[in-house]
């Protein structure tokens, strides 16, 4: 019994139908617990007050924004090497979820930055990298939308994902370099993600991060199921259409 | 050197169109493909030319033996007849374009820009390209579109000379080229059944 | 090989529009920016390297879809794919032809536009050097974008959307080098990093471009 058996779309559908209800409940429970605990049952931070609590939304979203792209990269590689349709469709399904997480990370970052830094936006390396990641997501999704033949689209978007990943990493380093070059000794603090977090914040944050991970998994499974059904309908129609 | 196609199954837009197709072409032979529109002749020729993968079966033609010509000739309107032809000769590592110009009666047109040629003249230039490839297997998709009777005869002569030199030709066409020596293959009986799978790209979803 | 380069150059010269269009666009950007930000010489000289880099980048972007679209429509790419030339090499040549007809004129025009933008005297050399080393990367990355979108009707806008994020690292290092040059600072780090990116994409990108083009020709 090999893992690759679930690369068969029909088998995958059957499995995901069994797993999804459990996954939805777990995701809802852990996101709910993490956020409610984080928002209402943690103390205000010494310097930032209650504004720090957006951390419970911001950090998990940012984490999943990057992980979603990473998952797309792995799925694209599997498609290019082993030609498993589920893999290509999972990558396609993950992109809109990833783009929403990126947007949440950017917007919550801006809302958080406003009171702390006194501005909605600074060209901090981290923020800039996320903006570039957002653009990569948009291009990837647009390419999927633009190509009619699904296998051609899967191939081309996979190639784009591979090349895009290399350039995303390059951009990350370029941006770090660029920002240093622009404002040396800046007073703008690095986004709080890297700061060591006290235990009272860490526990709900961890639950929230797990919750966002489960939510991502559930959304991708659900969307992949939809994509599989679309392809299956088209495949069946193509054959009956040819007969009539 | 010959072209051997064995038990070939091909797909268009992910759906199988022809399956179980086999034929062989030896030096000096020509094969004419027939079949109604949409029967998969173009797909078959593109597959044999190596532009798209077959679903199953083998195409054995050796390395770099096939010259492919289709509806569009790859001509540039802003280049002259000679420049167009010389370009393809250079790409295929050949030098002499004179015989090709003569064979398709293009000598008097050689300094004209390709954009100013008539449709039939362009087609002749496109076919002359075959002669400068120096390749033995011609794979031609409707080569006589927009040619008049005299030009069709020119084309048939060129094919005959090519076959005489040990070349081969695989031609999809509806009209009678006057190539009596050519065998005829009707692809209709090989049409894939609608419920056919044969490893089509969407097979996994059924 | 040479035949393809000569043909592409000849076509660019004869077809008109291709060669001068990018340059004219570059000029217009350099004229419009002072209209937008004001004629303050200090301000202009400070933003000049960046504006000239952005202008060159956009002018380069403008002609990307011509690299492959016309050859796709008239069947040339099908025939090239069956020719004894590796597609990777053919695409490298096409990128080179694009650079000679678009990138190189921009590099040569940049000092003249630098005058319009009040670029400080010490900035000219480094502006030209950074563009000279950076624009080839723009052409090669652009060829990849063109190969991805060649089968899509009206893919021009999509091409820009796909290519612009890929341009980010080159732009960051290139403009930084030009800016440091204009400020009289040491340019070597960004310049070397950008040259590294250029060398890397010239060596590796054609394989990705050829893979994408093969998928599109299928």
Which key terms come to mind for this protein?
heterotrimer, A: 244 residues, 6 helices
List the helices and strands and how they pair.
The complex is a heterotrimer of chains A (244), B (206) and C (218).
Chain A: H1 9-40, H2 55-82, H3 85-117, H4 125-146, H5 150-182, H6 199-243
Helix pairs in contact in A: 1-6, 2-3, 2-5, 2-6, 3-4, 3-6, 4-5
Chain B: E1 3-12, E2 15-25, E3 30-34, H1 41-48, E4 56-60, E5 66-69, H2 81-91, H3 98-103, H4 119-131, E6 137-141, H5 149-164, E7 168-172, E8 183-186
Parallel strand pairs in B: 3-7, 3-8, 5-6, 6-7
Antiparallel strand pairs in B: 1-2, 1-4
Chain C: H1 2-15, H2 18-37, H3 41-62, H4 69-73, H5 76-81, H6 87-116, H7 123-149, H8 156-182, H9 188-217
Helix pairs in contact in C: 1-6, 2-3, 2-6, 3-6, 3-7, 3-8, 6-7, 6-9, 7-8, 7-9, 8-9
Can you offer a commentary on this structure?
The complex is a heterotrimer of chains A (244), B (206) and C (218). Chain A has 244 residues and is an all-alpha fold. In chain A, helix 2 packs antiparallel against helix 3, helix 2 (55-82) packs parallel to helix 6 and helix 3 (85-117) runs antiparallel to helix 6 (199-243). Chain A is 79% helix and 0% strand. Chain A has one domain (3-181, 198-243). Chain A contains 6 helices and no strands. The two termini of chain A are 40 Å apart. Helices cover 26% and strands 24% of the residues of chain B. Chain B is built from 5 helices and 8 strands; from the N terminus they run βββαββαααβαββ. In chain B, strands 5-6-7-3-8 form a 5-stranded parallel beta sheet, sandwiched between helices. The termini of chain B are far apart. In chain C, helix 1 (2-15) packs across helix 6, helix 2 packs antiparallel against helix 3 (41-62) and helix 3 packs antiparallel against helix 6 (87-116). The longest helix of chain C is centred in the middle third of the chain and has 30 residues, at 87-116. Chain C starts with a helix and ends with a helix. Chains in contact: A-B, A-C, B-C. Chains B and C meet through strand 5 and helix 2 of B and helix 1 and helix 5 of C.
């Amino acid at each position: 019994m090999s893992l690759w058996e679930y690369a068969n779309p029909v088998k995958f559908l059957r499995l995901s139908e069994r797993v999804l209800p459990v996954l939805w409940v777990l995701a809802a429970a852990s996101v709910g617990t993490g956020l409610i605990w984080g928002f209402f049952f943690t103390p205000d931070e010494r310097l930032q007050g209650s504004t720090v609590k957006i951390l419970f939304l911001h950090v998990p979203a940012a984490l999943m924004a990057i992980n979603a792209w990473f998952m797309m990269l792995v799925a694209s590689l599997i498609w290019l090497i082993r030609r498993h349709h589920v893999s290509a469709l999972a990558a396609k399904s993950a992109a809109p979820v990833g783009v929403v997480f990126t947007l949440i990370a950017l917007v919550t970052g801006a809302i958080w930055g406003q009171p702390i830094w006194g501005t909605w936006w600074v060209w901090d390396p981290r923020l800039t990298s996320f903006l570039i990641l957002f653009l990569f997501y948009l291009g990837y999704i647009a390419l999927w939308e633009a190509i009619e033949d699904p296998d051609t689209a899967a191939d081309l978007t996979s190639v784009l994902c591979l090349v895009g990943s290399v350039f995303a990493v390059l951009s990350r380093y370029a941006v770090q370099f660029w920002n240093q070059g622009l404002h040396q000794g800046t007073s703008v603090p690095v986004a709080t993600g890297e700061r060591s977090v006290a235990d009272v914040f860490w526990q709900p944050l961890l639950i929230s991060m797990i919750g966002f991970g489960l939510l991502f998994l559930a959304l991708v499974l659900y969307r992949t199921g939809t994509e599989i059904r679309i392809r299956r309908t088209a495949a069946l129609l193509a054959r009956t259409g040819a007969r009539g | 050197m010959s072209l051997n196609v064995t038990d070939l199954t091909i797909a268009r837009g992910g759906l199988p169109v022809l399956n179980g197709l086999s034929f062989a072409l030896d030096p000096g032979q020509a094969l004419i493909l027939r079949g109604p529109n949409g029967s998969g002749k173009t797909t078959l020729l593109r597959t044999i030319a190596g532009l798209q993968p077959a679903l199953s079966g083998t195409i054995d033609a050796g390395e770099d033996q096939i010259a492919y010509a289709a509806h569009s000739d790859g001509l540039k309107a802003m280049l002259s007849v000679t420049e167009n032809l010389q370009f393809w000769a250079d790409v295929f590592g050949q030098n002499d374009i004179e015989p090709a110009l003569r064979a398709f009666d293009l000598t008097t047109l050689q300094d004209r820009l390709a954009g100013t040629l008539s449709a039939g003249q362009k087609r002749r230039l496109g076919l002359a390209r075959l002669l400068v490839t120096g390749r033995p297997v011609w794979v031609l998709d409707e080569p006589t579109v927009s040619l008049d009777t005299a030009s069709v005869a020119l084309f048939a002569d060129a094919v005959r000379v090519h076959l005489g030199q040990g070349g081969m030709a695989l031609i999809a066409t509806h009209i009678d080229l006057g190539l009596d020596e050519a065998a005829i293959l009707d692809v209709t009986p090989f049409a894939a059944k609608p419920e056919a799978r044969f490893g089509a790209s969407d097979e996994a979803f059924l | 090989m040479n035949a393809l380069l000569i043909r592409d150059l000849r076509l660019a010269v004869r077809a008109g529009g291709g060669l001068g269009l990018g340059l004219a666009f570059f000029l217009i950007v350099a004229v419009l920016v002072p209209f937008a930000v004001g004629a303050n010489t200090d301000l202009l000289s400070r933003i000049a390297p960046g504006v000239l880099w952005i202008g060159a980048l956009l002018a380069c972007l403008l002609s990307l879809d011509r690299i492959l679209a016309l050859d796709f429509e008239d069947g040339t790419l099908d025939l090239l794919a069956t020719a004894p030339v590796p597609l990777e090499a053919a695409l490298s040549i096409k990128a080179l032809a694009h650079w000679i007809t678009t990138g190189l004129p921009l590099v040569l025009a940049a000092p003249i536009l630098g005058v319009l933008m009040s670029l400080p005297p010490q900035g000219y050399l480094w502006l030209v050097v950074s563009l000279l080393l950076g624009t080839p990367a723009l052409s090669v990355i652009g060829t990849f974008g063109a190969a991805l979108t060649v089968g899509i009707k009206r893919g021009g806008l999509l091409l820009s959307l796909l290519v612009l994020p890929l341009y980010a690292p080159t732009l960051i290092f290139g403009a930084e080098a030009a800016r440091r040059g204009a400020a009289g600072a040491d340019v070597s780090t960004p310049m070397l990093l950008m040259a590294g990116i250029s060398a890397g994409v010239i060596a590796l990108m054609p394989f990705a471009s050829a893979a994408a083009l093969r998928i599109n020709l299928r």
